[in-house]
């Protein structure tokens, strides 16, 4: 670990030194070769584009490709713009068609077109096929290079076929079985093929395939892929003809990207397109400022509610002391419910048609939470400020927790119903809504109990 850290510091020092002479580049190459791939990916991701390009140039082809494939598509595009060397053509040609399509999405059209013309005819055709699907369709993430089997093959013939064509396809662990028009008949796992009787026919040992249509939403397919614990999934067109295969690394990448997006939006920000340390300051600000402005405007509701009940606060000043506690409790309760339901939606545990069940469930959860917190509030506030204030606190906590839990469970389902991102409707908006509504509940109960 110490040796690696020392080498990283040496590489950083060489990258920062300018201009780079031949001796320094040679030394940089030696130091870079001593680093693990993970450290190289980190350095390329987090350094300015000029330094990242210099580091990338001193890597050998195999290691450069490994590092390049590990980078997110926006960072790959920036690196290509900084390189502008024949090395770029080699990198593009060695990428899988689905990864190449993601990269081309991030490049200027003229650059993408020039790189596309540099591909051979087969690679260009496969890349064009992937690019033909909508941005969030699973077809954009499949590999069109698929090793297929015929149901009439014997196991011996199938194994020979796999050995002869194992180099090109992205995976050979799951082998689709197709008819003469590429209609998907089933799949055979490589292990099943290896242990089967060599005289058996592939059609006899094949089993039905868990598959998806190329135009299906990528997140839904990736969630289904993960739930079924697959290594690969055939992708078909609208007529059940095989057009590609989705591999586990692509499914994991989709889920990671979706989770990153949901996490950012749940916290009231837009996801960053690249690593945090290499994102320009103004881009980070832009990802946050919109939501802060929206929340600031919506928070005016809370101020207006306080203004309406200003005379009540003048009569019983002690009520002001509990406002942060009540608004915080309501916001946290709503956020907990929203986060739970949003995740349940994402993994398919809950659907829009389950809305009544979710509301009924969150009603009960909210009431139980309210009873527990209300009892504690009555005990503490009652001992310090009297029974009347304790009663106000206990009833308010019961009401706020119930209301916030219902709203928190309801919002993601409403968002899903109208076609919006459930994460956007979650924590920031729920906190603001619960703040304003909670204050109305608080002062209404206080007015009734205290006779204000």
From TrEMBL:
Subcellular location as annotated: Cell membrane; Membrane
Q: In Gene Ontology terms, what is one molecular function of this protein?
A: metal ion binding
InterPro entries referenced in this protein's UniProt entry, alphabetically: CBS_dom, CBS_dom_sf, Mg_transptr_MgtE_intracell_dom, MgtE_N_sf, MgtE_transporter, SLC41_membr_dom, SLC41_membr_dom_sf
Gene3D superfamilies attached here? CBS-domain (3.10.580.10), MgtE N-terminal domain-like (1.25.60.10), SLC41 divalent cation transporters, integral membrane domain (1.10.357.20)
Residues in domain CBS?
Answer: 142-205
Q: Pfam families from the xrefs?
A: CBS, MgtE, MgtE_N
What's this chain's function? Answer: Acts as a magnesium transporter.
Coiled coil listed as a keyword = no
Q: Which organism is it from?
A: Brachybacterium vulturis
Q: Whom does it interact with, and what assembly results?
A: Homodimer.
Q: What NCBIfam families does the record point to?
A: mgtE
Descriptive protein name? Magnesium transporter MgtE
| Membrane topology (UniProt) | Multi-pass membrane protein
Q: Indicate the transmembrane segments per the record.
A: 289-309, 365-389, 395-415, 427-450
Write down any Gene Ontology CC term.
plasma membrane
By sequence similarity, the record places it as follows: Belongs to the SLC41A transporter family.
Entry keyword set? CBS domain, Cell membrane, Magnesium, Membrane, Metal-binding, Transmembrane, Transmembrane helix, Transport
- Please give the chief subcellular localization of this protein: membrane
């Amino acid at each position: 670990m110490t040796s690696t850290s020392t080498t990283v510091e040496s590489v950083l020092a060489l990258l920062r030194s300018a201009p780079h002479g031949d001796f320094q580049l040679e030394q940089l190459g030696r130091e870079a070769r001593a680093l693990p791939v993970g450290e190289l990916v980190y350095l390329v991701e987090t350094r300015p584009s000029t330094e990242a390009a210099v580091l990338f140039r001193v890597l050998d082809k195999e290691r450069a490709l490994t590092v390049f494939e590990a980078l997110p598509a926006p960072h790959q595009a920036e690196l290509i713009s900084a390189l502008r060397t024949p090395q770029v053509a080699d990198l593009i040609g060695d990428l899988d068609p689905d990864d190449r399509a993601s990269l081309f999405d991030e490049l200027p059209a003229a650059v993408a077109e020039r790189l596309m013309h540099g591909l051979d005819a087969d690679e260009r055709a496969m890349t064009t096929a992937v690019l033909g699907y909508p941005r969030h369709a699973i077809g954009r993430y499949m590999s069109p290079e698929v090793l297929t089997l015929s149901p009439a093959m014997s196991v011996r013939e199938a194994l020979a076929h796999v050995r002869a064509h194992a180099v090109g396809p992205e995976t050979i662990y799951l082998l689709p079985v197709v008819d003469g028009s590429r209609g998907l008949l089933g799949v055979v796992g490589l292990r099943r093929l290896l242990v089967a009787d060599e005289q058996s026919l592939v059609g006899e040992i094949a089993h039905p395939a868990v598959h998806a249509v190329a135009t299906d939403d990528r997140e839904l397919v990736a969630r289904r892929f993960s739930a079924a614990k697959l290594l690969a999934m055939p992708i078909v067109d609208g007529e059940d003809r095989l057009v590609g295969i989705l591999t586990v690394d692509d499914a994991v990448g989709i889920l990671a990207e979706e989770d990153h997006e949901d996490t950012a939006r749940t916290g009231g920000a837009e996801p960053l397109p690249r690593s945090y340390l290499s994102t320009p300051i103004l881009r980070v600000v832009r990802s946050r400022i919109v939501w802060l402005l929206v929340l600031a405007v919506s928070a005016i509701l809370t101020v207006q509610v306080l203004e309406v009940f200003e005379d009540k606060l003048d009569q019983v000043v002690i009520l002001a002391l509990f406002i942060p506690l009540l608004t915080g409790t309501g916001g946290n309760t709503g956020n907990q419910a929203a986060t739970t339901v949003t995740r349940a939606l994402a993994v398919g545990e809950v659907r829009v048609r389950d809305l009544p069940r979710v509301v009924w469930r969150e009603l009960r959860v909210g009431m139980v939470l309210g009873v527990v917190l209300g009892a504690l509030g009555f005990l503490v506030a009652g001992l310090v400020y009297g029974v009347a204030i304790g009663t106000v606190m206990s009833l308010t906590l019961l009401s706020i927790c119930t209301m916030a839990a219902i709203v928190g469970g309801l919002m993601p389902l409403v968002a899903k119903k109208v076609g919006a991102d459930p994460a956007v409707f979650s924590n920031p908006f729920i906190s603001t809504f619960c703040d304003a509504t909670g204050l109305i509940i608080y002062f209404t109960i206080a007015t009734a109990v205290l006779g204000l």
